[in-house]
């Protein structure tokens, strides 16, 4: 073997190694994050942000994979944002696993884990909020006052810290996706918002960090969310277009399951989130149900079958 | 003369011409503005934004000159922003002079006049606001409810449209400057805010588009604003540090002038805008006075003389 060949082989080997063990950069300061994306943008790289509250599951990882498809730099923020939790909500017991998150992001080939601490994002004297007015009023906004102000504020901050070309959100938080799209349009943020379909467990339960709160009996009952979405689709495809009738059937299916308490069931326009009385070509069915102490959400689009 | 020399001379002439008659680009759409700054940033040019409501006077032009000192691309936005006017304020009669503004900006060597129309910035369905909570409560915030929400919202939009490295504001609107600085810090906007000292008419009246509303007698009375600032400085430098005493003297000087009605007189901390009882090394005296129907503002820092 000539020296040249050996050198080529070793280069190839190290390339291979660097592909499987791509280094994940962990950044904790806003200024460092801004410097990182400034350098990346000067190299004409395309930046995608995946905002998360950590405790990453397959749902989050599907967002990271989507981001990798459309961008050359994938930044995943991991921050449990206190301003989107109400005073009696689960901020303190919200599950956290920073080292697991880091390992998963490393495996998925994310470039940056942006994990600022509380005082980095909310220092003393902080007093500015972004407020989307109309489409935050109902559904999760009604059940969780102030929740969406916290979401839009932190997302605006994360956008300014990471300056992404694109940002990827799950369709599971459908109202959140609509609210953020509205904010981006209204404030002229030059960012493309991508929604990724819900990822489910084998039995149909939508993945959520909060599923970890469920007892084994509650876990069984929680399947009623997905079942009720299926029932609604079935009714529509069999000819029912009356929203009240479908809503009634969904609610009674859920109520038959133990430990459940309905927060809301809504049939609405997928863009404006305004209630509808009659289902047209495309409608959104969204629901929030307490199962024991745990509040779960799920949704689906109900569409005409393509012929 | 050889052909070469002639060609050199003509190039020099056209360079000279292009220097004095630098072309001002007028942009009316957010997307076009974003494309312009994207190109400028890719050439590593440094962008400064000067937000204005038009009807430009020497005060505005001093901001444009400051911007030219610190940036290679100067964008001046001209937009009379309805969301910062209250229902009984002067939106309809606010003075406008788009062709004069264009000529002045051309003369000052600004690169872009960004002049979107109303529906470009506030299309149907618009519903997102940026709200700075604490330092907007008093002074102009108290007299003009909702005013600062309108200011921060439109400035956030202008920032996202023009993506400046720096933005230049007048110190005449001192509370506005403090509120915008707070928004930039709180939302992690990567923009340096520069405040430029007040520009005054020969007789001391702070320049303002609203001065054009004043009758000739009101115009004379309006000089009491600047006189009262001078009186306060004089009292401080002669040893008075009691805020109440200085405020009392300022108010009684203003009240002696016809057509005047005090909106507020405040002595406060220049950063937090919190009221002070005793003047320290640096304090802000800010005031708003109605002269006839016209509301005028003025302010000054009261500082220890440097030894």
Could you please describe the fold and organization of this structure?
The structure is a homodimer of 307-residue chains. The first copy, chain A, is 41% helix and 20% strand. Chain A has helices at 3-20, 30-42, 58-70, 98-108, 118-121, 140-143, 147-162, 174-186, 216-221, 223-237, 243-255; strands spanning 25-27, 47-52, 73-78, 112-114, 128-132, 166-170, 192-196, 260-268, 282-291, 294-303. Chain A has 307 residues and is an alpha/beta fold. In chain A, β3, α4 (98-108) and β4 form a beta-alpha-beta unit. The first copy, chain A, has 2 domains: 18-196, Rossmann fold, CATH 3.40.50.620; 209-300, Pantoate--beta-alanine Ligase, Chain: A,domain 2, CATH 3.30.1300.10. The first copy, chain A, has 11 helices and 10 strands. Chains A and B meet through α2, β5, α7 and α8 of A and α2, β5, α7 and α8 of B.
> Strand pairing plus helix content of chain A: what structural class?
alpha/beta
Number of strand segments of chain A: 10
Q: Which CATH class of the largest domain in chain A?
A: Alpha Beta
What is the correct CATH architecture of the largest domain in chain A?
3-Layer(aba) Sandwich
**Strand count, sense and closure of the main sheet of chain A?**
6 strands, parallel
How much of the sequence of chain A is in beta strands? Answer: 15-25%
Q: Count every helix of chain A, treating DSSP H or I runs of 4 or more residues as helices.
A: 11
Which descriptors would you attach to this protein?
homodimer, Pantoate--beta-alanine Ligase, Chain: A,domain 2, six-stranded parallel β-sheet, alpha/beta, 2 domains, three-stranded antiparallel β-sheet, 307 residues, disordered N terminus, Rossmann fold
């Amino acid at each position: 073997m000539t020296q040249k060949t050996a050198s080529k082989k070793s280069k190839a080997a190290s390339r291979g190694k660097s592909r499987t063990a791509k280094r994940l950069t962990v950044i904790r300061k806003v200024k460092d994050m801004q410097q990182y994306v400034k350098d990346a943008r000067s190299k004409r790289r395309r930046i995608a942000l995946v905002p998360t509250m950590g405790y990453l599951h397959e749902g989050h990882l599907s967002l990271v994979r989507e981001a990798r498809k459309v961008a050359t730099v994938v930044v995943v923020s991991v921050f449990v944002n206190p301003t989107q939790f109400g005073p009696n909500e689960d901020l303190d017991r919200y599950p956290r696993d920073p080292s697991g998150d880091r390992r998963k992001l490393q495996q998925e080939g994310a470039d940056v884990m942006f994990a600022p601490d509380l005082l980095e994002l909310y220092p003393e004297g902080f007093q500015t909020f972004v407020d989307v007015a109309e489409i935050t009023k109902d559904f999760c906004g009604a059940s969780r006052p102030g929740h969406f102000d916290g979401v839009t504020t932190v997302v605006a901050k994360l956008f300014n810290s990471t300056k992404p070309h694109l940002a990827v959100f799950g369709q599971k938080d459908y109202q959140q996706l609509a609210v953020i799209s509205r904010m981006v349009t209204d404030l002229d943020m030059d960012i493309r918002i991508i929604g990724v379909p819900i990822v489910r467990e084998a039995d149909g339960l939508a993945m959520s960090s909060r599923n970890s709160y469920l007892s084994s009996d509650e876990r069984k009952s929680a399947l009623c969310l997905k079942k009720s979405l299926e029932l609604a689709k079935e009714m529509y495809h069999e000819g029912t277009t009356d929203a009240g009738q479908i809503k009634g059937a969904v609610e009674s299916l859920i109520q038959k399951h133990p430990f459940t308490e309905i927060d809301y069931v809504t049939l609405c326009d997928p863009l404006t989130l305004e209630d509808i009385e009659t289902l047209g070509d495309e409608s959104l069915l969204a629901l929030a149900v307490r199962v024991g102490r745990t509040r779960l959400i799920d949704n689906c689009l109900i569409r005409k079958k393509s012929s």
